[in-house]
Structure formats: C-alpha cells, structure tokens
Amino acid sequence: MALNNPYNTTLLRNETAAGAAALRTETAVGAAAQLLLLVLLGTAIDLGPAGWLTGLAFAVATWAVLTRALQRSWLASFGAANRVTLARATLVGGVTALVADSFESPTPVTALVSLTAVALILDAVDGQVARRTGTSSSLGARFDMEVDAVLILVLSIYVATFLGPWVLLIGAMRYAFVAAAWVLPWLNGRLPPSTARKTVAALQGVLLLVVGADVLPYPVAFGAALLALTLLSWSFARDIRWLWRTRAGRAQ
C-alpha cells in the first residue's frame, strides 16, 4: 500500500526527472567540450571551413545520438567510464575535423597524431574504469565500440589519401558488417569474448596512427596498412564463421 502513497509517487517522479536532467547535462558538457576543442584547433592551426563544418556536425551528431540512447536506457547516472569514453569521443571529433581540413590545406601532423594517441590511450582506460567501479553497461560498451569505429574510419580516410583507396576497406569493414546484418539476421548473434578480436581491434588504431604519422618509408607504411587490413579481415572472417556455425542453435 505504501507504494501507492502520493508522496512516494511524487518523490519517485522527482528523482527520475533529476536523473534525466543530470544525464542531459553530461551530454551537453560533452558537446561544449567538443566546441571548445574546435575553437582551440581553429586558433592554433587556422582550421578551415571543411574542418569547422565537419567538427560541428560530429559534435551535434554525437550529442543527438548519445542523448537518444540515454533516454532509452535504464542508466541512473552517466558513470565515470562513460565520461572517459565521452572525452575520447571529443578527441575523435577533433581528429575528424583535422582530417576533413586536410583536403583543403596541409595537415598538422603533430596535432593529428597527438589527439589520436591520447584517444587510443583512453580506449584502454574506460573499460578498466567500468570494471573497477562496477558500472559496466550495454550502452557503455556500445558507446565505446562506436567511438572506436569512427576513429578507425577517419584514420583510414586520411591514410588512403597517400596509400590508395584500398585502405578505406579497414574503416568500412565494420559498417559493411552492420549493413549485412540487416539482410542476414544471424549476423546479429552475440559473439563470445575473444582476446584475439580485442587485440586486432586495438592494432588497427595503432598501425593507422603510425602510418599517418608519416615517419615510415613508403614500402613499410604500405606493409603496415596491409597488415592491419589482413588482420581485420581474418578477425571478421573468424567471427562470421562462428556465427554461421551456431545460427541453428540460436534460432531455437
């Protein structure tokens, strides 16, 4: 009977509204941080129109998608791990702006490498924070994965400008897999944990960063990018084969 008490109902509504407001504040702070980073880049390297527009589009898209996802989740608070991932997304937005700007003006390689390196380091941090604080969630895992995918796509676009369009396969592979899953539902199956998959995913960013730093001779850079593509192709083929073999059991 106590649950039907008007006071309890009002209190619950107030707590829910306060939690939703706190989550909105987190995403707003993330968008503001993205804008601040664009201002800093614009001041330091004279970011052009393409960089500004791409960076702003990234900020708006990240804010909108994350806000929508939080509204549909059961999270009571944003959590420290998601804050780390949001900081990483901000850096990825900066990398995206720099890559877009590189089509109009010389690339500030130092800035590009620095932002990417910090983003890759933070990629190893958010998961540890989630486990240590007991705040792991499906939304956090998806958020982390999407930020990774965007970074790899953006880096592959940049590297493709001097190694050739074939490098785009690295960044496009994950999105091609998602598109294929719309047609082949068995690809949506849950994959078992895999150290090999995590290692290959981490190597993509590292190898593309090293190639993008423009410190390797062309043949070595070509080989590093080719190694990244080969490892990623093997990883996807391995997972697809497992999903195919277990599709009948999952359909029951």
Automatic annotation (TrEMBL):
Pfam families: CDP-OH_P_transf
Keywords, ordered alphabetically: Membrane, Transferase, Transmembrane, Transmembrane helix
Record organism: Streptomyces iranensis
Top-level division of the source organism's lineage: Bacteria
Membrane-spanning segments: 21-41, 47-66, 150-183, 216-237
Protein name (Swiss-Prot/TrEMBL): CDP-alcohol phosphatidyltransferase
Annotated GO CC locations: membrane
Classification via InterPro entries: CDP-OH_P_trans, CDP-OH_PTrfase_TM_dom, CDP_ALCOHOL_P_TRANSF_CS
Family membership: Belongs to the CDP-alcohol phosphatidyltransferase class-I family.
GO biological process, one term: phospholipid biosynthetic process
Single GO term (MF): phosphotransferase activity, for other substituted phosphate groups
